[in-house]
Structure formats: C-alpha cells, structure tokens
Amino acid sequence: MNGVNRVDMRRVTQEAIRMAREMGIALEKGGTLFLDEGAVMHLISEALKEYGVIYATLGEAKREYSDILEEYAVSRVDLSRVQDGILVYVPRNTVIEEPISTCYALARRGVVQRVYNLYVAEANAHMVTSTGCYALTDEGAHWSVTDVHLGEGARASSIMIHNWRPGIRVSMSKRARILDRAYLSAFYINSSVPERITSMTELLLEGEDSKADSDTIVNAAGSSRYDYISIARLSGPGSSAQLLSRIVARGSAEVRNVIRIEASSPGTRGHIECRALQLGNARVSTLPELLSSTRDAELTHEASIGKISREQLNYLFTRGFDEEEATSLIVKGFMGAGLGRVPEPLRPVVGRIIEELSRGGM
User: Fold this and answer.
1) What pLDDT digit, counting tens, does each position of 158-209 carry?
2) pLDDT tens figures, 207-219
3) Beta bridge partners of 157
4) E strands, 39-139, in order
5) CA 128 to CA 151: how far, in whole Å?
6) What sign has the CA pseudo-torsion 301, 203, 218, 353?
7) CB neighbours of residue 204 within 10 Å
8) For 289, what's the count of Cα atoms within 13 Å in the CB-facing half-sphere?
9) Which of 210, 143, 147, 206 is nearest to 174 (CA)?
10) Residue 269 near residue 302, CB atoms below 8 Å
11) Is 17 strand, coil or helix?
C-alpha cells in the first residue's frame, strides 16, 4: 500500500485525555482516571479527524454526515425511529490497528433500545472494532442493525460481546458488503441468559476474491431461547467464506442455528462448521445449508451435536483433574478453537470470557 496513513490510537487517546484535563472534565481519584463518557468520545472524535477518520454518534452523523449514511448503508432502516448508534468511517489507505470500542447499556426498566451502527472502510483501509452490549435491568428489549461496507482491498476485524439478563429480548441483524479483495473477520460471543435472542447475519461477498471469516460462540443456559441465522452470498468471482459456530447448551435452553452459504460465481469456496456440546437437557437444532448455481464452486460443511465423552473425562482423570475441572477444561478448548482469529489487542479479553464461561460463569 503506497502512502499509508497509520493511526496511532495510543497517541489519539492521550491527546483526548490532555484536552479533557484542559477543559476541566477529568477527575483523578485514588490513582484512577474518571472521564465523562460523552465528552471523551467527542474529544477522541476530534483527534481522529486529523487522520480523516470519522467517529460520530448516530445523532451527529444524521446532522453532519447524512451523505455517508445514505451512500454506504447496506440495510434499509428508518433512522427517525433509532436513538442510539455510531458511524465509523476510515478513509482509503488509512490503517487503525487498535480497536475502536463502543458499549451499549440497557439501563432503564421496560425500555426498547434501538441502535444503528455503520462501519465504513474505504479502499485499502484497515480497522478493528469492538462492541459490547449488556443490561442493568431484568426487563426490556434491544433492537440493533449493524452495517459494514468494505471497499477494494480493505480489511476489518470486529468482535461483538453480548451479556444480557433474564427478561431481556434481543433482536439484531448485521449486513456486510465486501468488495474486491476485501476481507472481513467477525467474532461474536453470547455469554448470557436473556429471555430470547433473534440474530440475522448476512455477508454479501460481491467483490472479486473477497473473503469473510465468521466465528460465533454461544453459551446457552437457563430457559432462554436462541435463534441464529447466518448467510454468506458468494456473488463475486473467487470469493470465499468460512462460517464457524460453537454452541454450549446447558439447562433447558432452546437453540436454533441455521448457517447457509450460496455460491453464484465461478471459483467460489465456502465452508461451514457448526458444533454443539450438550451439558444438560437443552434442545439444539443446527442446520448447515449449501446452495450452488455455478459448476465451479467448492462448498463443504461439518456439523455435530454431542456430549462430553467418557473417554475424554477418563483421560483427564488420569492427569489428576476432578470431574468439574475436566469438564471445564474440555469446554474451554471447545469454545476457544477460533481464538487465534481474534485481533491481538482483544485476545486477552476474549480469553478471559471463555475461561469464565467454561466454568459455567457469567
């Protein structure tokens, strides 16, 4: 890449903190730095403008960047009905290796939280994004749409972590448009027991030699219901996708997992791997689907639902582990199979979550 514009997020953050102190909106107490969240986002946004990067709330994006919202949106959304969300726009040849993070908290009882996020990486741009969603109440709903546009040669790594509470209903969708030689790596973890989650992911690999990898980890527990649908549409010549899911089902949870790859251009390749581990009386349905309308496509799938084998446990017993420790170790290995694809700055966080989930926590 010629003329690469590399963003130093550490310097950007330090500059935001410096400006915050000058404006009197920073407090230091007991060695900990406390900052007003909205103010700091604004200051980081201002610092990123030096690189041509736009980091804006949805409200600001509607006022100042409506042209970007209109040009790059992948889904049809009535934004007049949406209160929360962000716009991240990374111009061509600009590289951001540290994560741009966003967190959504459902804090008020009985509220329906509506979110729209748009991430844009222009030609040869790189970005890493992290999104966390959690609830502080036991009654409410979260509705979200996330759109991703990757220009020619762009690369994006994203991670989304859900941590809800009983009584929360979640409906979310994600659509990504991936152009020539662009690459998307998406990692999703659900670590919670909401009332219900309905999720739809659609990857549109429109460009030549475009590529997408998607990892989904679901910790299903309690009496929660989980519905996940993931679709990759390979319409660009030479495009490829790998869709992987790992489900650990406990209690009396119900999980429905549908993964589909459609190939309509020559030289396309796709692989589905969906595995579920049952640790209780949960009901699990996993449905891999392959569809090809071209003779020159290679699509494969693997699927399994099972329990921890006695042989695995016995082997670990001989190494001095008790049953609880052995089960935790097996679950940790099962859920962490795709950890190497997580962006390096976020790997320790994901590793800690998987460690906690393997012990039946969170």
Assistant:
1) 999 998 999 999 999 999 999 999 999 999 999 888 999 999 999 999 999 9
2) 999 999 999 999 8
3) 128, 185
4) 54-57, 86-90, 94-96, 100-106, 111-121, 126-135
5) 15
6) positive
7) 22
8) 13
9) 147
10) no
11) helix
**Residue found under tokens 């716009």:** 87
Phi, psi dihedral angles at 129 (to 5 degrees): -130, 150
Query: Which sequence spans correspond to the domains of the chain?
Result: 56-307, 308-362
Taking CA atoms, 212 is separated from 74, 180, 186, in Å, by: 16, 12, 8
DSSP secondary structure string for all residues of 267-322: TEEEEEEEEEEESSS-EEEEEEEEEESSSSEEEEEEEEEE---HHHHHHHHTTT--
Task: Label residue 123 by pLDDT band (50, 70, 90).
Answer: very high
**Can you give the pLDDT at residue 25?**
44
Place of tokens 């219901």: 225
Contacts of 141 (CB under 8 A, 6+ apart): 111, 112, 113, 168, 169, 170, 171
Nearest partner of 225 among 248, 246, 195, 251, judged by Cα:
195
Fill in the amino acid letter for 215: D
> What tokens appear for 103 in the block?
């967190």
Q: Which of 82, 101, 234 is nearest to 145 (CA)?
A: 82
- Which residue's structure tokens are 């009584």? 167
Residue 94: phi and psi, rounded to 5, are -110, 130
- The Cα–Cα gap between 196 and 194 comes to 5
Considering only CA atoms, give the Rg of the chain: 21
